[in-house]
Amino acid sequence: MIKVAVCGALGKMGQEVCRAVGECNDTELAARIDIEGDDIYRSIEEAHKACNIDVLIDFTQPSSVFENVKYCLNNGIRAVIGTTGLKDSEIEYLKRLSKEKSTSCLIAPNFSTGAVLMMMFAKQASKYFDNAEIIELHHNQKKDAPSGTAIKTALLMSEANDNFAKGNCPETETITGARGGTSYAGIHIHSVRMPGYIASQEVIFGSDGQIFKIRHDSMDRKCYMQGVLLAVKYVFEHNDFVYGLENIM
């Protein structure tokens, strides 16, 4: 039985993760961690002193996730990270620390198997198109923009094509940010924040005479649980660092 702690347990994703862990035959909910609430540990350190923890799942916020993962890896706790907003330099640091401590860490911008397939298909399509942009849409309580999924998608696409702005004319924004943010390989990412959304993303490819779109919509947070549990089982059985759920599917 894998003993699991959930950090950010009272958030919407955290509550869903706690239910999934509790209902799975292979996992046991050993600790719930958040900043307030009944029967809640206030920190990972407090939970670690009181409980045996094999794997910590983090769905907190960008301002705290880096320190949370550092604590886990330095104390022999395997980590599954769903919080987005980590900088490239922080991810590289955690990768080195995971290897140094021989403690597994999996960071996934998205745990929905459908969203991961969308990213994989976008990378495949990138071989055949020289122009592409990403629109990502989330609820208005999401604190980071663009989403980790959009950034990861752009990174994967850039591995197949190094320039997605071929043939574009010189541009002048009359309103700053009108063209979104420019990411890897010149891919523009546009972030929408609106009540009513959970998480959606559309990758738009274009060439002379045609438009090709790949889109994924999350309707319920339950769609992430299969991927979360897959990641928990993986890190429990391995000692390596993984960035992206597609690497273990």
Provide a brief overview of the structure.
With 249 residues, this protein is an alpha/beta fold.
CATH architecture of the largest domain: 3-Layer(aba) Sandwich
Number of strands: 11
> What is the overall silhouette?
elongated
Percent helix: 25-40%
Structural class: alpha/beta
Strand line-up across the major sheet: 2-1-3-4-5-11
CATH topology of the largest domain: the name is: Rossmann fold
How many domains make up the coordinates? 2
Low-confidence stretches: none
Can you count the helices? 7
Largest sheet: 6 strands, parallel
Quaternary organisation: single chain
H/E element sequence: EHEHEHEHEHEHEEEEHE
Note down, in words, how this protein is organized.
With 249 residues, the chain is an alpha/beta fold. It folds into two domains: 133 residues, Rossmann fold; 106 residues, Dihydrodipicolinate Reductase, domain 2, CATH 3.30.360. Helix content is 34%, strand content 24%. The protein contains seven helices and eleven strands. The strands form two sheets. It has a six-stranded parallel β-sheet, with helices on both faces. Strands 7-8-6-9-10 form a five-stranded mixed β-sheet, covered by helices on one side. β7 and β8 form a beta hairpin. α3 packs parallel to α4. The longest helix has 14 residues. It is elongated, with a radius of gyration of 19 Å. The mean pLDDT is 96.
